[in-house]
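Continuing from the previous page of notes. For each protein in this section, the sequence appears first, followed by its structure tokens. Read the first protein now.
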Amino acid sequence: MVGERRRVGVVLAEAEGLRAAAGAVVADHRGAVEQVRVAYVGVRDRLVREELGAIPVARLRDVTEGRLRVGALEAAGLGTVRQVVEASGYTLRLIPGVGAQTAAQALAAAGQIARAVEQTVAVRLDVERRDAMSSALVVALQRLVAAGPEARRARETAERVLAEVEPLVAAAGPARGVLRGLFAGRERRAQAQAAVESLAEALVGFGAREVPVLFAQASVDLLRPPLDPVEAWTDFELRSADYYGVLGGIVEEAGVELAAAEGFLPEDLSDRVRAEPLDDAHCRVSLRGYQAFGARFALAQRRVIIGDEMGLGKTVQAIAVLAHLRARGSTHFLVVCPASVLINWIREVESRSTLRAFRVHGPEREAALAEWLRDGGVAVVTFDGLRRLEASEVAESAAVGMVVVDEAHFVKNRAAQRSRAVAAWAERVERVLFLTGTPMENRVEEFRTLVEYLQPALVPLVRQGSAAAGPAAFRKAVAPAYLRRNQQDVLTELPEVVHVDEWEEFSPADLAAYRSAVAAGNFPAMRRAGYADPADSAKLKRLLEIVREAADGGLKVVVFSFFRDVLAAVQTALDQRAFGPIDGSLESARRQDVVDGFSAAPGHAVLLCQIQAGGVGLNIQAASVVILCEPQVKPTLEEQAVARSRRMGQVRRVRVHRLLAADSVDQRVLDLLRAKGRLFDEYARRSEVAESTPEAVDVSEQSLAALIVEEEQLRLAAAEG
């Protein structure tokens, strides 16, 4: 009897401890979220006031269909809607010619405009406007970004704990002692004993999921002291997408039209997709609303194409789908992609999820394949490598839960060997996801080919001329298999410049040139070794892919390199379809003429610039895609080059692609510059002296070169040893 009472006491004590921990997590998370909401409202209201301050008071006539006469308001100095909103009825009635009815109408009309602006204004965190309100929002968001998705999952688990444990703790009260049991009566005692047993089972279940550890870590993360605003802004610059992802999960994303964010799908299909569950237990990133919808679309429809415009996170959406399937029991997944983005896929899978990625390519291909088959995870293979990966052989060892095909327009020719390999896998696997940034509306025959791999029954619906009715009508017709969103529709806060690091691997010839340059201690040769063999250069192949995608969208491209011979290789690869190059040999008076010709060219065009010559003093705002052939030793060189496009008159957001070779001088340059990044940011971006004399804070090229050469010589020597 004594032993039983002791057991009951232990169970109740553990249950109350878990309940207290769960309550603390819920409260801590709610407090962190509330700080974000308060800060967000402050920034949003400021933006609303600013926008209302730019709307003339005459617009009040439009709202009242001309019934309101605003002459008296204008004569009294009330020239904007904001001034009317901030005025009281009494203040307005003091204006000659404004009676009670006019004052009431003016306030009602101004309020209607204010509400419309509030619903559409997009809160954008501008690193160049670090006022107190914006800083408060960044600091509040940083706490949740640093805590990661685990904090949200901890809160959700805590809510389940409270819902399950609290009623049982209350029901188990009579079992706490002899006297309480005597006064409770037989029925209550039986109920109490049953509640104790249910609590014991619940504690075993929660304990098995290591819930107490999850709660403890979440509380520690959510109660960390807030960062200094300078540190928070620096972190925001490094991973702004994560900040906006968290913000989008807390507040409704204003300015984003639901139909556009959902790719203009039919309402019944949209409803079904929204209802599709999405388990993010294996995700390490917070998804934007449109990204979560894209992942749900792939899950609900099973065999689809996500054709979002470049920069919207198609890779992240695919990883979210794989993470969901892993949470539901699938273990093996396959990603097929061009060799140029293979490394990016490996990095993204392992940084954005708990899934392990296997590089089934190169000399370690067989070992990686064997490990993937044994342990599960994501096998990443090139199109050529897929031809050697027999679906039937893999099927004997593992069931593949999904095949993801990146740059799916590469298989538009069904007669090609890589297309036949993809088709064989698509026939064997239940779930298939194609990714492509190429707008299918303009390539109906290509689209028919891709749909035939996935949903052949849709092919008769896709005819020549299907896109004539416009993109919205086209997407609705092919909705069961195709989802596309554009940046301007879903990323209302997108900054003017988006940086993308493109990691590639040296080709054998480039690697040989690199090793030779390292052995000779030739730093410039090391930096341009990625273009030593233009016919087989991984960097050059990726550059051409970016240019082709820009051409598909009618975008202009500017290509920067420090080296003239690199630009010559690019020009040859482009078949002379480029303006320039602008380099040191071209006199200054001629440089702007070349840029003017580039700007005046209709639609897509490419301009080649030596970064020292083209990065300063020119207006290249026609370009919205910037390609940096190699990282620059002086950060200001890159910034000044990008600033040539980011100028008044630029109507498109600028995307900057920096081409990098893994395990090379590029990695060493970035590592060393990032180590000094915060100091550089705090000084170079804020100091008037630094802006007028950028070389004051640039890292010495000579000392950096010597350090990198020495490190690379030691690294390669160790690898060979």
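Done with the first. The second protein uses the same format. Note its length before scrolling.
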Amino acid sequence: MKRDLFRDEEGFTSVGVVLALLITLSLVFSAGQVYRLNAAASKVQNVADAAALAAQNVVAEFMIVVKVCDAAVLSLSLTSLAATGLGVAALCTPVTAPASEALLSAGRSVARARDSFAEKAASGLNRLQRALPFLSAANAASVATADGGGSSSYLALAVLAPDEGQEIVVGADAATEALQDEVDGEAEGISEAAKRAEEAAERANEAKLRGFERDCGANPSYCMYERARSLAGMEGADNPLYRSVDTWSFAVALERAKAYYPHRLAAERSENDSVEERARSKLRERFYAYAAQEVERGYVRESEGSFEAFFPHLPKNTEEMRATGLYTEAVYPVTEGADGTVMHAWEGCPEAAGAVRFGSIEQMEAGSYITCPACGFSAASMGKVAAASTSIDNGFEYHYEKVAEAAEDYERARAELDPLANEVRERAGGLFDRLGDALGSVAGMRIDARPPGALGVVVLAACTGASESAWPGPFVQPAGALGAQAAVSAATLVADPAGEGASVVSSLLDGLRDDGGAAVGALGIVLDCWSGVLGAYAEGQKALDGAVSSALDGLPLAGASGLGSWAAGALSEVVSAVGLEPANLDALKPALVNSAHVASADDGAFAAQLLSLKRGAMESPFASNDVFQSIVGLVEGGLVEGIDAASGSIVIAEVRVFGDSGPAVPIEFALPEAAKGMAVDVIERIADGLRTVCAQVTGARVWE
């Protein structure tokens, strides 16, 4: 049998074992070399990632300052309009009219402060965003330097995308100025009409109070309620008792009177059987029947804007009785005798037998009738019936007459009040309508920004320390030093809805509140209102409503005319209709992304060059060592504008609510520690360092 030296029947040979071991050892040492290479590369990649996050964090902090400036502009706009609205409301009562001038003036002052702040804030933010490339680069370079140690040191160059921000321009707010001009033109007329309305309202309220007291307010003393209960036994719905003049109306008294006389007529009885008393009782019946018919003609027509009432007057004496139907009604029996004609009080009079006709008191006085010796009936007899209950306060008619007089006084006062109140409501209401329109238009005067780095940042990083020597081994080809170690990283801003952004902005706004100073009177109300309105940026409509409501509580708007309360309600309604939504306060935080994502979102030269080189590196990996060499020079020139400040922060603008004489509240931007005192030419040195590192691999053989 022929034997094969390289295999046996089972396929296992000595030569095969040797080859397998050699291949295995080669793969192990190659994998170790790859791991060593990747480990070295990961160090610089980690530095690049950290530098990218640090660079983009500067942009995130800039956006927080933008939100604070926007909150200040919005709050000042709303406060200006709120102060104007409060001034209009204050015009509606004489007590608050003097404060109106201060409130309206404060509204203009706050609007001027808003305009001044917005202009300075836009200028300061524009200056700051032009320096963002430098600040971000400085922050990235500082992080890269801090990550070095031992023989390793790192350089990092951060490039923002876009590298230039959009100019921040604040819109105009013509509606506020137009409204304030209109208010100034209407102020005197509204104030004068409100003053006269208040005077008329005070007279009306005094008359109504008198009527209430005479009807039922004086209970248990004499009043219509008490007399009706005592004299006619009236209870329940026919004789209601009101405890407050605010719930009472003249209609209550009139309805009580309409119920009283039928009750009193039905209950009328003579006190004894004497002819004189029986005659008086019959005359009282006649009077009650007449009063029931007369009072039934009465009416009260009342609405929010008008009042009409008719309380028929009942006669108080004989003279007044002669002007009523009691004088002319022919209901009294007349007899003829030898001595002349006699008229009797009623048919039941002992002397009235054989009456030939019925006559009136008017006929009796015209015909000089003889007085009946039994009942003694005369014109004065009926006059005394009315006089007995209208002349002294134990009579129902006495109090009814006082209510009737009060109703007439109330109607006269309302006749003056209602047109004046309607005038105030119409003129002030028109201003409130324009205020609502102005509140809806302040959204046009806001601060928004698309700064450098809005799309993200790309960082170029490299290790500038001594290159590590190659890992010698029997199964890998020696390659000398590993060469330059470089990496590209990128980061962008993402919203974090965890609430940190709201906390940061709210904290800064709280600082504005605390530093806002103190004032008293109308200015104090406006300053407190601004403090409350600041919360509307984060909380929306609820905070705005609360701020205006609190300011209204600080004004004594209550008055006899009710115009102050109306104005407060109208202003609150207009403000509530704004529907202000809270600003988006999600924190913007840097997050690592593929550099292609950042570059593809930007249309700048750097982004285009980076994308081109990345595509070339993917197509020809061995030609990718010139990535930095190609683009460092492209971005170097755009990172040279620094911040001329040695302190830890720069003032963007100051909020001066009441002009130069009022408190000043600065809004500042804290400089990154790395940027404090850093020379502008540091960017050039970093670029030179990166070029030097990259030059180390020019022409070098790619590690195999």
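What the second structure shows: Confidence is low (pLDDT under 50) at residues 694-704. Residues 233 and 263 are 8 Å apart (CA to CA). We return to this in next week's lecture.
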